[in-house]
């Protein structure tokens, strides 16, 4: 697989911030396809713009920009996106470079509507992160994103000239959350929804936490740039935070414990950050902000979109799809999973991520063969989409595949064991006793980095970077398989089961499944973290008993990857992943309130015996022959 060179760390940090925003204007501005994306002339020539304040049921008015085709010969469906990242450009004489969820959409005949959500930019009201859904609304004052979407659509179909009475809803990242919330108790005119990289649960797997472990650099950047609020004003996004360095490890180590972020930088001006620091477990605050329990009886058709290299909200895309399968089985819904970082499918050709190439413009294939037909069928056609349940890109072989369900049921579950002498094998360990283990010391003052250099933000290509830098550290343990004599294709979630111990009372275990190429390049297929105190409950953490062997089970997001003949499987295990993940003091405590004196070194172990067989379990497709 060919691999292009990376850019500078500072450049990547800027791109990462753009990825996090992923509003309609920002996403379009990153792309390029000739005259439409190059300037505003196409939109200005072919669309008339109108700005309105649409009243909600409680009297709050939301700023809304409506772009209607100047060709008055037809009746057009409406494509609506609701965003916390600005419905700019403002002014009826100001036009964006493009419109809609893809670069060809301005030519396809829609009325495009962009709205500032409640309490952001030019909309009235109070903004609340991950607005809790109110399943029972007893009065006009009981509002949420579902009711705001309903009221917006009701106004549009009655007041937007030239519409055909059908509405589609879409959004990326935070916009994906608003799209997901908007399809609950939907307006009858809402026929099709595409939540793309949707935020769904900020504690279990999206953006700010994974399995309870705090994702430090991305959350810090987001709250510093888009979470600050001035007195009496709607919230908006400002300039990126100035770190004064490309060295994220240095900056965040010098910042010290998480509590110092409030003292030094936020100073109670970021409500979202302050709230997070008050809720260090999966309590009612977080549970109320999960949209997933409310995805029941969904009437519009749904096309969920996610990226295999999306470090922000791949979890959310998978969970929306999985939840609809389970809680709303009659919904016409499908999923697209492509080889993309956060929002890339709306931004560029999708031919590369960092050091990986995928053999062609994967985003163009998605736009033309998946997204455009989805909206056309439900908003312009007979409302009956003809499509598979899942389009998924197979990395390694670099090809799109379709499935009747995802994950596929073909093949069989196999376990890859972390064996003695740090070898990987599909054979179950036969040795007994507790003498076989790998051991290292995790020092919070010298945490293992998540990238070889830089890291001031969640760099969009970090999941595609060479992982060999980890092998130089004594606190990273690598398990290596034999050279493969046949291709091995795995599909679906990767589930680590680790038997571990620590001299501390808490700790993190980071697991990385890696494809080692014949030239030595180490491709990260999937990696994630488990915070040990949450091993039995995210709501009621419990300490480790020093020296006692404990079982850790968790699930890493889905993959679809072929390890090619001549490659090796490799697994790295470590106790820190900084500053992607905050430092664990390795003392059982509320880490958000921890003091510098709480942070201590700890010796961590992973065991590999017949009775304590640490392993990764995944589905191997039948076309693969396991050596």
Word description of this protein:
With about 625 residues, this protein is an alpha+beta fold. It has 2 domains: about 10-200 and about 290-405, Rossmann fold; about 410-620, Jelly Rolls. Helices cover about 20% and strands about 25% of the residues. It is built from 13 helices and 26 strands. It has a 10-stranded mixed β-sheet, sandwiched between helices. Strands 15, 16, 17, 19, 22, 23, 25 and 26 form an 8-stranded antiparallel β-sheet that branches. Strand 13 and strand 14 form a beta hairpin. The longest helix has 18 residues, at about 360-380. The chain is globular. The model is unreliable at about 1-20 and about 25-40 (pLDDT under 50).
Task: Walk me through the topology.
Elements (H helix, E strand, L loop, with lengths): L8 H13 L2 H7 L4 H4 L2 H6 E9 L5 E9 L6 E8 L27 E6 L28 H15 L3 E10 L1 H9 L7 E7 L12 E2 L2 E2 L1 H11 L21 H8 L3 H8 L4 H8 L5 H5 L12 E7 L6 H14 L5 E6 L13 E2 L2 E2 L4 H18 L10 E5 L4 E5 L8 E7 L5 E2 L11 E6 L33 E5 L7 E15 L5 E9 L5 E10 L18 E4 L2 E8 L4 E7 L27 E6 L7 E6 L7
Class by SSE composition: alpha+beta
Radius of gyration: 24 Å
The strand count comes to 26
Shape: globular
Can you tell me the CATH architecture of the largest domain?
Answer: 3-Layer(aba) Sandwich
Helical percent range?
Answer: 10-25%
Oligomer: single chain
CATH fold assignment of the largest domain: Rossmann fold
Task: Give the full name of the CATH homologous superfamily of the largest domain.
Answer: Alpha/Beta hydrolase fold, catalytic domain
Give a summary of the structure in a few sentences.
With 627 residues, the chain is of the alpha+beta class.
